[in-house]
Amino acid sequence: MAKLLHFFGTILILISFVVFPIIGKKDEYAFEKSMNRESMSLKREKLSHFKFYFHDILSGTKPTSIMIVPPPKNTAKTGFGIVNMIDNALTLEPKLSSNIIGRAQGFYGSSSLSELSLLMIMNFNFIEGKYNGSSLAVLGRNSIVETVREMPVIGGSGLFRFARGYVQAKTISLNVKTKDAIVQYDVYVLHY
Ligand SMILES: *[C@@H]1O[C@H](CO)[C@@H](O)[C@H](O)[C@H]1NC(C)=O
Question: How is domain 44-191 classified at the CATH fold level?
Answer without folding.
Answer: AOC barrel-like (2.40.480)
